[in-house]
Amino acid sequence: MADLAGRDEWRRHTGVWHAGFGLLAAVTGALLVTQGRPIGLPLLAALGVWYAAVGARAVRDGEQGAAGLLYVAGALPLTLALFAVHPVCAVLLFCLYSHIWAVLPPRRALVATVLALVGTAAVTVVSGGLTAEVFVTAAAGLFIAAGLGLWITRIIQQSQERAGLVADLTRTRAALADMSRRAGALAERERLARDIHDTLAQGFTSVLLLLEAAEAEPEPESARRHLTRARHTAKENLDEARALIAALAPPALRDATLPDALRVLVGRVGADLPAPPALAVTGTPRPLPADQEVALLRVAQEALTNVRRHAAAATVGVELEYADGVVLRVTDDGRGFDPAALTGGFGLSGMRERVAQVGGVLAVRSGPDGTTVTAELVAP
């Protein structure tokens, strides 16, 4: 397919030129026989062999090779010799003029056309004398041949330009496809980085903190509780890892609604906070597109993890509001931070990108009195 697309229209129709030459050569041969001039048949055969050996390739290549000049150098005298044998051979001049303009650049083609017309006029003068008709015929022939030649040249140029455009388009499409593959791979890497940060990394952090707490706990019963929670968190991490590998929804959302998944999340994280967070659901809960529910759950997970690790908050609230759109708010009364001063990592930037990908907006307000993270999605 690529080869057919790259070949210009001229080359794809050279068979018509070959058929045209063969037809006119056959007509000329028949006329020579019927007019009693078989002496011209060897010349006609020589012209046919010359066309097959050199001319066919020259016509196929157009103005691109030296074969064109070689072909004209041989075809011109042979055609004039046939015309000298009998005027009926003039039909071959139509082929000659067409071939001249097809295989030579315009300037050389014009020179070759003039030579052919001068040769034709000379044959006419030798056979019938110098008359006004000779000059009129030569002038008309030059005008017609030049017009036909320029038309053929224009067709060849347009055909080659079209082939160039097709080739450029093919290269551009290949480049765009490569860019698309690269962009897709980059997006997938970023998605995996965010998912790993929002799930596995946080889970491992929780396991580590729980194990450290178990080591520091003097009471065996309390240490056992920490170990049980660490085992439970590790199992959840394993489920998350399997879901990431299989590109599935988070396990918490697989068989539960978003409010239920948030309750489980709040209950799990709340065990590590001074006071259990409160979850408030307002409006009428409704199913959301899977990517939106995943985004909101991950935002809540990241925000609560940040509260647990950095905020030193006494109270934490999580609100899920169903209205025209859906709004998730995570608030705390901790020490706050400067959102503009944070650089790097996948925390706030990852939340913003995740929410933006599902058509939403993430806002963070933080100060000495606490922090509010708000993710707002438009109505699906």
Automatic annotation (TrEMBL):
Residues 296-380 form the Histidine kinase domain. PROSITE patterns: HIS_KIN. This is Sensor histidine kinase. The chain crosses the membrane at residues 15-34, 41-59, 71-97, 109-128, 134-152. Keywords: Kinase, Membrane, Transferase, Transmembrane, Transmembrane helix, Two-component regulatory system. It comes from the Bacteria. One of its GO terms (molecular function) is kinase activity. The keyword RNA-binding does not apply.
